[in-house]
Amino acid sequence: MIHELLMALSGYPGDILTWSKGTGLQVSQDLPFLHPSETAVLNRLCKLGTDCIRLKEFIEQHTDHVHLQEHHTNQPSQTGLHGSYLWAFCAGLDSMLRPYRQTLLDLEQEFLGDPHLTISHVNYKLHQFQLLFPSVVVVVETIRSQKIHGCQILETVYKHSCGGLPPVRMALEKILAVCHGVMYKQLAAWMLHGFLLDQSEEFFVKRGPSAGGAAANQEEEEEDLGLGGLSGKQLRELQDLRLIEEENMLAPSLQQFSLRTEMLPSYIPIRVAEKILFVGESVQMFENHNHSPSRAGSILKRQEDMFAAELHKLKQQPLFSLVDFENLIDRIRSTVAEHLWTLMVEESGLLEQLKIIKDFYLLGRGELYQVFIDLAQHMLKTPPTAVTEHDVNVAFRQAAHKVLLDDDNLLPLLHLTVDYQDGSGPRDGATPPQDTSPREVPPSGWAALGLIYKVQWPLHILFTPAVLEKYNVVFRYLLSVRRVQLQLQHCWALQMQRKHLKSSQTDSVRWRLRNHMAFLIDNLQHYLQVDVLESQFSQLLQQINSTRDFESIRLAHDHFLSNLLAQSFILLKPVFHCLNEILELCDNFCSLVSPTVAPLDERGTAQLDLLVKGFRRQSSLLFKILSSVTNHQIKSDLAQLLLRLDYNKYYTQAGGTLGSV
């Protein structure tokens, strides 16, 4: 009977201890030679044997499946469980059962040497496993019932290892160490070579953008930004201004990667996972594009073997140490970040590229755009056609030639776009719209104008299509301000032509309104170019020159772009709308008075009266917005704009209203 007991405890039931799927091991009924006390001990041992058999079944079922999966398919088993982490978990379970199997062998040797030993001796020898097995079975059943997959297995084992029973904690920590072996293998492939070894989607890094992105939170973001009252066209334009979604602006390779946060174990902080993501993306980008002999070498400075040895050393540790783990990740990240800094700043001329971005997207070359506006005004003042884009690019190159900007290397990288189609897909390099409704036909070519800059590798790390589209929105806004300013200056020239003539009451109204408009637009232009663009750009250059870490550069550029959008009021609905209305009124005024220096007719006088009232209303609204926000000390940039407009208190003395007769 003892021999059959040991066999049953090994997973091979017989006649005395029988097995059923529902109840497990049981002592056969009505055995005349068993004392009730022996039956009680046997029943206790039966629970131990039942747990052992169920653990063995789980190991055999899923280990066999994993081996089959490696050679044939990647389909999950009938239980829905599959993957390398499951195989490692089963291997850990099997290693946990080895002391148990060895104890059974020792017991058999003891009983062969001393036939007088009792069942109680078996119970005594196996007592430690009677505490361990039920807890491990709970872990197994949790994985089975909840279909826990991939790195989630690490989290499950870790949580159950935090209990108070030392045997359970030690056993689960050993199983966790085996499972960590798979994670370290994936980390080494990802961080040292840029390979994502994850056929079964088990790792916490995945190919593609993060789930539940902008579409799911679009309405909430619009509410936060105050975009609820925008028109369809304005809303679609402002949707392109969203900050780089979930900090995934960094896209070193053509394939975007992101974190699968539901797979990240709780004992690995998100900050560490983001460093792992950054390193792997950077290594892959460098390896995939490293075709130039001058750039031959490793982004890890040929330290792959050293880092691989340190990862292997961590893998051999019986307990996971977050301090040691993060220290190694930081060393790898620092090596990659410094190499990227050298590659971008010293070898690829990042500062020169930023100067190009500033010159063309942020109108740093003001003389170029002054000539371009004059050349392209007749093309873009009406709704665009199929040939408008070609014509404006010809005008752009003519303007470059007139201001002596004939850079054969630079100009081919710049191309003006004019979106004249309603419902067509986005152009190359442009961020796709968030909705699928047909686009409105722009009222003029200026509203449809965009600029494409072909960014050379590896600068596409910073200047992604999404980032360039945000620059594009700032570009259109700055260009509209500059264009209106030039039109008002042209109206001033017309005024000077009539100064020797006798002026009428209408002339007085007309030119006073122009003066007020020019006052507001000139100060707005000065604020945008000096207080915002020059100030923020100098801060960006200072931050780049003060570090040798690429991530610091990326964050500084991120901050720079965010400040441009914020301090230009593009994201602040009340001010942005008010300024747009003012620009439109100024544009309408210039269209009214520019064609002729002759006095206005009756219809023109009526239109002028409407423009006066509209400008008074919008200038008053702007003053109230700036004053109310400043009083609450919320936005210093709004206070700065108010200071520009009201530096001599003329705005205040006029009751916050410009354009009065």
List keywords for this structure.
661 residues; mainly alpha; Four Helix Bundle (Hemerythrin (Met), subunit A); two-stranded antiparallel sheet
Q: Which residue ranges are poorly predicted, with pLDDT under 50 across at least 5 consecutive positions?
A: 65-74, 213-254, 291-297, 422-441
Largest sheet: number of strands, sense, barrel closure? 2 strands, antiparallel
Strand and helix order: HEEHHHHHHEHHEHHHHHHEEHHHHHHH
Principal-axis shape equals: elongated
Strand content: under 5%
The structure class reads mainly alpha
Provide the domain count. 4
Average the pLDDT over all residues and give the rounded result: 77
Query: How many individual helices?
Result: 22
Q: How many strand elements?
A: 6
What is the share of helical residues?
55-70%
Secondary-structure blueprint:
Blueprint lengths: L1 H8 L7 E4 L3 E4 L8 H36 L12 H30 L5 H7 L1 H20 L5 H10 L4 H28 L11 E3 L10 H8 L6 H8 L17 E3 L10 H20 L14 H13 L5 H26 L2 H11 L5 H15 L7 H15 L11 E5 L30 E5 L11 H33 L7 H41 L4 H18 L5 H21 L8 H30 L4 H10 L4 H4 L8
Helix pairs in contact: 1-3, 2-3, 2-5, 3-7, 5-6, 5-7, 6-7, 7-10, 7-11, 10-12, 11-12, 14-15, 16-17, 16-19, 17-18, 17-19, 17-20, 17-21, 19-20, 20-21
Can you tell me about this structure?
By secondary structure, the protein is mostly helical. The protein has 4 domains: about 170 residues, no CATH class; about 120 residues, no CATH class; about 120 residues, Four Helix Bundle (Hemerythrin (Met), subunit A), CATH 1.20.120; about 170 residues. The protein has 22 helices and 6 strands. The strands form 3 sheets. Strands 1-2 form a two-stranded antiparallel ribbon. It has a two-stranded antiparallel ribbon with strand order 3-4. A two-stranded antiparallel ribbon has the order 5-6. Strand 1 and strand 2 form a beta hairpin. Helix 10 crosses helix 12 and helix 16 packs antiparallel against helix 17. The longest helix is centred in the last third of the chain and has 41 residues. About 10% of the residues have low confidence.
